[in-house]
Every structure is written in C-alpha cells, then in structure tokens.
Design goal:
alpha+beta, cell membrane, Anoctamin_TM, elongated, 3-stranded antiparallel β-sheet, glycoprotein, Anoct_dimer, Anoctamin, 4-stranded antiparallel β-sheet, single chain, 29 helices
Length: 886
C-alpha cells in the first residue's frame, strides 16, 4: 500500500509576465540543450527552445525551480567551481565526457555560467528527467506505484478518537490518497493510476532515478591503468573535485511572508518547517508521511524510530524519577548512613590509609557526603526500577516490530531488499569474477569464499588492534586516577584531601571523553576502508558491515571506563598488609566505604552529557556557521543578479558522508546508557527523554533549513541497528543484575538485616559486619603512612578497612569470614533469580504481542490478490490482441 505522493506541478498561471496563462513549452529532444564534442572544452552556450511570447532574458527567484522554458522541473543539480587553467584541464575533459554519457541516457541538461551566479565562481548544470527516462528507471528499479484505491476499512486507534494537544492540525496537513501498489511496468501502464504524467512521480522518486543514472555513468572513455576497469560515478567525481556538489533541489524557501493559517503552505518544505522543524512545535507529533514523502523512506524510518523511542522513554523516565524521589525522601531515614555520619557511632572509626606513604589515617565520617549521595541511587527502589527497565526493553522491541511492520506495508518497503535494491556500482566495477545467479539465471559478479576469508581476516586483525589501543588508553586513565588521588590525598588541606577521589574521578572522566572523541575520528576512517575491502554486494550490506564494526569499537570506547568502575574497581585490591600490586607496581584503587556507585554515576553523567553536547554542536552549530560563512558574501552582494534556488541550496551544508549513521549511533549509545547501567543511574531515562525531545527538533531543523536536500533513499527497516538494540537489551539484563549484586550495597545490607542482625535493623552494620580490623604492625614497608598524625589520632595500633576478613586475633588472621561466603551466595542467587524472571517475562511479552497487526496482514493479502488479478488481466489482453494463426 502507498499513500500516493505526487510531485507538485509547475506554478499555475503566468510563469513569466509575458507568457500567456496556461502556455507550456514543448520539451526539446533528448540532449538538445548542450552541443559540442564530448572532449571539447566546457559548453559555453545553452540552446533552449523559445517559448512564444516568453522572455528569455529576465527571471525571478520564484521560478528558478524550473528550466528557462518554465516547464521542465529541475530534478538534480551538478555544480563545480572554476579554478586555475592547469587545475581545470583534466577535470574539464572528465566533466564533458560524463555529461555526454548522461545525455545519452536521456537526461535533459541546462548550463548556468559562473558569471551568472551571485558568487561569480560557481557553474551549475541542471538535470531534468523526461517521462520516458522516469518510466524506464522506475521499471528497472522496481518502484511500486499506485495500482488501485485501497478499499479496506481502516482501524482507528482509541487514542485517535480523543484529540490531544500533541496532535497535528488536520486543517493544515491534508491526508494523502491511499492506494494499493505494484511494481511499475511500462507494458502494463494503463493499469496504474496515472491522472497526470507530470505528477505521477514524486520529486523524491524523480531525483532517485536521476541519481541512479549519475552513479553509473562513465567519465573516462578507456581503461587508464590497464586494470580492466573504467572509472565511473558521480561519487568519484565529487571526491576528485571534478564536481563540487550534486544534489536535488529543495521545494523552495522554508519561510513565508504569510501565515500558514491564512494562506496555507508555500511548498512542502515550508509545511515541514512550520509543523515540524520550528522549535515551538517541540510537543507536537511528527508528520511522518510528509517527512517520508519529502526526504524518502530511509530518513522517514529514522525519525519514526526516534519518535517511537522518545515516546517509550516517557514511562521509563517517570519510573526513574519515582525511584530517585523515593531515595531523596527516605535518605534522612537511612540508618546505615546516619550511623556513618555520626561521630558517636560509626563515624569515629579510624580507617586505614587509602594510598601508600603519603596518605594517613582518616575518620569514617569523612565519607558521609559520598554515602548520602550514593543512597539516592542505591536503595530498594533501584532494584524494582531495574526489573521495570528490563521489561521495558522487551516491550520496546516487540512494539517496534509491530510499528515497523505497519510502515513496511504502508510505505511499500516490505520487499525492498529482495526485489528493489540493486547491486552497488562500486561492487560491479571492482569484482571481475562472474557466475550465474540461480534465481534469475543472469551472470553477476561474485566474491569467492577464499577471498572473503582473507578480507574478513584482515578486518578482524585491525579491529583487535584498535580494541587493544582503547584498552591501553583506559589503562592510562586508570593510572592517572591512581596517581592524582594519591597526590591530592597527601596535600595538607582538608578541602582538597577530602575531595581527592571526587576530583580524580571528574578529571579522569573528562580526559576519557577527549580520548573517546579522538579515537572515534581515527577509527571511522579505518572502518570505511575495511568495509570497502570486504566488497559488499548491496548498499544495505555495506552499511550493515560498517555499522557493526563501528559500533563494536564505539561500545569498547564508550563503555570500557564505566565497566571498569562498575565491575573491577575495588574488587581485587587485596587488604592492608597484602595489597595486590600487579598493576605496573601500583596499589590498585579502592572504593569509598559507601561503594563505587557514586563514581559510576559521575562517569556516566560526564560521558553521556558530554557526548550529546559535542554531537549537537557538530550537527547543528557547526553547519549553521558554515552556511552563514558561505552565504555572507552573496547576501552582501549589491548587484541585481537573481539569487537562484540552485545557488541557495549550493550554499547549504552537506549532509555527512555517512548519512544517518551518526544519528543512529548517538541514539544507540544513549540506549546503552539507559539500559545497561540504569541500575546505577535511574535518572538516565529522564535525561535521555529531555535530550531526545530537543534532538528531534534539532535534527528536523538541520534537515529542513541547514542541509542540502539529501537523496530520498529507500530502506526496508532500520537495518542492523535493531539487532544491536536487541543485543544491548540482553546484555543489560546481565549487567544490571551484576551491578545490583556486586557494585551496590543492596545485597550485603539484606544479608546483614535478615541473617546477622538480632533485631532485623541496620544498627552496627559498619562496626560489626562491613568493616574488618587490621593491626598496623602488619603493614608492608611501602604502605606505612609517613605522617601518622599523632595529635589527631593518638597512638594508633589498629585501623579498619572495607572487607569481610577475620581480625588479627583470630586463629587464622585475615582469612575470609563466613559472612563473605553468605554474601557471595546471596549475590549469585540474586543474579540467577533476576535473569530467569526477566527471561520469562520477556518470553511472555513476545508470545502475547504479535509482530504484525491483523489489519496490516489483511491489507497485504488484499494487495497481493489485486496485483495477481492485474497480471492476469494483462495476459488476457495480450491473448485477445494477438493475431490468430491461419
């Protein structure tokens, strides 16, 4: 099914002041506009068929969406800047040959000289695809076009019956016609719903057909390096500077002097800006069908998924806020923290030094602030919230599959990868071996298994090298933390010494963020080269392979330091008198007596917020500055030249080379923060929700106003990202179970309360259960404090440390007490119960929620039936018109 979208017609009435209303120009023959031999210098004159009574010397900005005849719409624009003679000599030849090739494919071309542009430096070549080219391209690309009106009853959701402030104004956005569709076929053209050939193909479809021609046209007439390959494609011409830009035009200006309510939309771009990209529309639903119609299915899918993800974050954010508020309200009633902060109870305990030599003894009450902050994120509500989030992830996947099934049918992308997607031109040109395709019995290029094995082995080796590089960088940050914490702890100022751990955590997180950004930039270039080396057949395969490599690296890059704090810091320190020094001879970091959870929150917050701030700057602020710099000169120009639409779009920023990859990656990394480590930071969904509300409008703003119009690409789904999201959700169950069991104090507290406390209260938790005693006579020489601070602590003979060890007076001193084994058994039991409970609930959700809605299934069956009926009808007509044998 397809909500049929049609291209806007040329402006009605007078295109030019002296052109009679309703007058249209006859299209010239293919290739009529440009003349000269393909190897001559650049064409300097454009021959355009004269329109009776129409001016050929004057025009205004409103009509620069068309050729000079005012009838043929501009489907694509090629631009190049004039340089020195030596620089241009080779490029002129390539351009001329390339243009000759695309003219032979049937495109109409019209040339704009550099001196006609406001900048005076840029030449433009406008491309128009006539009906014959469009029909042929649509058939070759298996485009699905309207076949018959959709006569199936539509089901209305209960949410659609009740208007909300979030709904779009139905008076401003018209509903598109709803059709059943079938692959376009020129021999059965009369069976398709063609009211007007000029409007039959949308602007997006027209530009996609033109781009298919541009991507396969040769720009050299012979093999230059005896490799058996001829160079081709607009991508390479853009890369080598022959063309500086290639883009379809936006539909016009996105602003208007008149209100949308009074005069209606000027064009589709104006409508999208007013309803979607304006900051004041942040609370409104997205016009997804309009986005798809204007930008194509691939971008439409991204914004649909982003909106769906943001909507799903609402209940998660509410649950996280409830967990946080519970911790905030009950913080003053937490007996363990109150005892730690009290000098009369646990706060007066003398603690062993936190580093060698330069650190001295300290009182447990100094950890009061850490303990209170930790309780905000480490309380009984956190455990319930972790279970809720694991179940939330299951609902997220299952309901997205339903939503995606609706889109696949509604937008005609269900069979795109199998039926419509074509072989990459780069693959066709690079692979010389051919074999017969068992499906269509045609010779196609292929890569043998031994070659694939060699290429993928190379990829694995390079990936392992970069993973090792990330680990080395993380180790460097850990060493920095250890050294800085030791140096600050030795400073004889309570303000600095008391915050040594916090300062080390914050600064190391900032350093880690800088390393992450730098390594991302380097690795992205490597990943592109490795993906090209693997020689993937289709664009989808290429993107999935590149995405998988990039995400693996990003996963290690972004999460390594967080995993270290969550699962390794403080777990293998040893004890006073027997510290582990396997880490380059350094004594390993210890957690605060209140635990490492608050450090994990700090690391999560800085990396999550810092990454999103950097991404928003790179995606919005930087393009806006670049657009202003490029447009400043032409806007300040005092001449009377028309600032044409093609030059306005030329001065816009280019969409990043990797398309939507950065957009998806940013959200998927965020999804990891929201799910994998949510037990440590219940506010993560809330901050993610706030970010995404802004992100949707920022993305919309840059697509509509700051970027050249991207090619309207099609896609069947969100690709490998869905598999990555499922993998993250599965990992999140294990991760959150481990964080609750081993990083938080929830399990030790429960064991003490129900096993070791006589009155089932938390009295004496630190003094009798969580801390162990150490005789300072057993200190290693390197660990003895240089300044024992006799005035403050007196003659210290014993100190306490975090652990479950026997006292020095025990028959076997410093061995694990029975409490250690009880806590470990409870931690392992919790992980088993937690994971099995979530697995069962996930299976239950998958069983109860079907992947495809019933009404979508029925419409698919109806469409297939109509498509078969149309095919049978065509065959009957052939039989009736076939001459009878004598």
């Amino acid at each position: 099914m397809n909500r049929a979208s049609v291209a806007p017609a040329p402006p009605a009435g007078n295109l030019y002041p002296s052109m009679p209303a309703g007058t249209t120009a006859k299209a010239p023959p293919i290739g009529f506009e440009m003349h000269g031999h393909p190897h001559d210098n650049e064409p300097t004159e454009v021959v355009t068929e004269k329109v009776p009574g129409g001016p050929q010397t004057s025009r205004n900005e409103e009509f620069t969406m068309f050729f000079k005849d005012g009838a043929r719409r501009i489907d694509f624009v090629l631009a190049y800047e004039m340089g020195t003679t030596a620089e241009q000599e080779n490029r002129v030849k390539k351009r001329a040959y390339f243009l000759d090739m695309i003219k032979k494919e049937g495109l109409h071309l019209e040339h704009e000289k550099p001196e006609d542009s406001k900048s005076g430096k840029v030449a433009f070549i406008k491309c128009h695809a006539p009906w014959e080219v469009l029909a042929k391209g649509a058939e070759l690309m298996n485009m699905k076009m309207p076949l018959a009106p959709n006569d199936m009853p539509t089901q209305t959701s209960i949410f659609q019956c009740c208007p909300t402030p979030f709904d779009l104004d139905k008076e401003l956005i018209e509903e598109d016609d709803n059709y059943f569709t079938a692959p376009f076929n020129r021999s059965r053209m009369d069976q398709f719903v063609i009211h007007d050939k000029e409007k039959f193909f949308s602007n997006a479809q027209r530009s996609r057909i033109v781009y298919a021609i541009l991507s396969r046209a040769y720009y050299e007439d012979e093999d230059q390096d005896n490799s058996g390959k001829r160079r081709f494609g607009i991508k390479k011409l853009l890369a080598n500077g022959t063309f500086s830009a290639a883009y379809p035009l936006h539909d016009g200006k996105y602003t208007s002097e008149h209100s949308l309510l009074t005069r209606g939309k000027e064009n589709e771009r104006h409508l999208l800006y007013e309803l979607w990209a304006k900051p004041g529309r942040w609370y409104k639903f997205q016009p997804l069908d309009k986005i798809r119609k204007y930008f194509g299915e691939k971008i439409g899918l991204y914004f649909t998924w982003l909106g769906y993800y943001t909507t799903m974050l609402v209940p998660a954010a509410i649950a996280g806020l409830i967990a946080f508020i519970y911790g905030l309200v009950t913080m003053g009633d937490d007996q363990v923290t109150n005892d730690l902060c009290s000098v009369q109870i646990a706060g007066n305990i003398t603690m062993c030094p936190l580093c060698d030599n330069r650190c001295s003894y300290w009182r447990l009450k100094e950890s009061c602030g850490f303990s209170r902050a930790t309780y905000l994120f480490d309380n009984p509500a956190t455990v319930a919230f972790a279970c809720v989030m694991a179940l939330w992830a299951s609902f997220f996947h299952e309901f997205w599959k339903r939503k995606q099934a609706e889109l696949e049918y509604d937008w005609d992308i269900a069979d795109f990868e199998d039926e419509e997607e074509t072989v990459r031109p780069e693959f066709e040109n690079a692979v010389m071996r051919k074999r017969e395709n068992p499906i269509n019995k045609k010779l196609e290029p292929y890569v043998p298994n031994w070659s694939k094995c060699f290429r993928y082995s190379t990829t694995i080796v390079v990936l392992l090298f970069f993973f090792a590089l990330v680990i080395i960088a993380i180790l460097g940050v850990i060493i920095y933390r250890i050294v800085i914490a030791a140096v600050l702890s030795a400073i004889d100022q309570d303000m600095v010494k008391g915050r040594a751990g916090l300062i080390a955590s914050v600064t190391s997180a900032c350093i880690n963020l800088i390393i992450i950004v730098f390594l991302n930039f380097v690795y992205q270039k490597i990943a592109e080269g490795l993906t090209e080396l693997e020689q993937h057949r289709t664009e989808t395969e290429w993107e999935d392979a590149f995405t998988f490599k990039m995400y693996l690296f990003q996963f290690v890059n972004y999460y390594s330091s967080i995993v270290y704090i969550a699962f390794f810091k403080g777990k293998f320190v040893g004890r006073p008198g027997n510290y582990n020094r396997n880490f380059f001879g350094y004594r390993q970091e210890e957690c605060d007596p209140a635990g490492c959870l608050i450090e994990l929150c700090i690391q999560l917050g800085i990396i999550m917020v810092g990454k999103q701030a950097f991404a928003n700057f790179k995606e919005v602020v930087l393009p806006k500055v670049m657009v202003w710099c490029k447009s400043r000169k032409v806007l300040d120009d005092k001449d009377n030249k028309v600032y044409t639409h093609w030059e306005q779009d030329y001065n816009l920023a280019d969409q990043p080379k990797l398309g939507l990859f950065d957009e998806y990656l940013e959200m998927v990394i965020q999804y990891g923060f929201v799910t994998i480590f949510v037990a440590a930071f219940p506010l993560a969904p809330f901050f993610a929700l706030l970010n995404n509300i802004i992100e949707i409008r920022l993305d919309a703003y840059k697509f509509v106003t700051q970027w050249k119009r991207p090619l309207a690409l099609r896609s069947q789904d969100i690709g490998i990202w869905f598999g990555i999201l499922q993998g993250i959700s599965a990992l999140a169950v294990v991760s959150n179970a481990a964080i609750i069991a081993f990083t938080s104090e929830f399990i030790p507290r429960m064991v003490y309360k129900y096993v070791y406390s006589s009155d089932q209260t938390m009295t004496g938790y630190y003094e009798t259960f969580r801390m162990s005693v150490f005789d300072i006579a057993d200190f290693q020489k390197d660990s003895m404090p240089e300044d024992p601070k006799f005035k403050e602590f007196g003659n210290v003979t014993t100190c306490m440390y975090r652990g479950y060890n026997e006292p020095p007076s025990a028959p076997v001193p410093y061995t694990y007490k029975m409490a250690f084994w009880h806590v470990l058994a409870a931690q392992l039991a919790f992980i088993v119960v937690f994971e099995n409970l979530i697995v069962f609930l996930t299976w239950l959700v998958m069983y109860l929620v079907p992947d495809m809605p019933y009404n979508v299934k029925m419409q698919m069956l109806r469409e297939k039936y109509l498509s078969k009926q149309a095919l049978f009808h065509a065959e009957e007509l052939k039989e009736q018109t076939r001459p009878k044998a004598e």
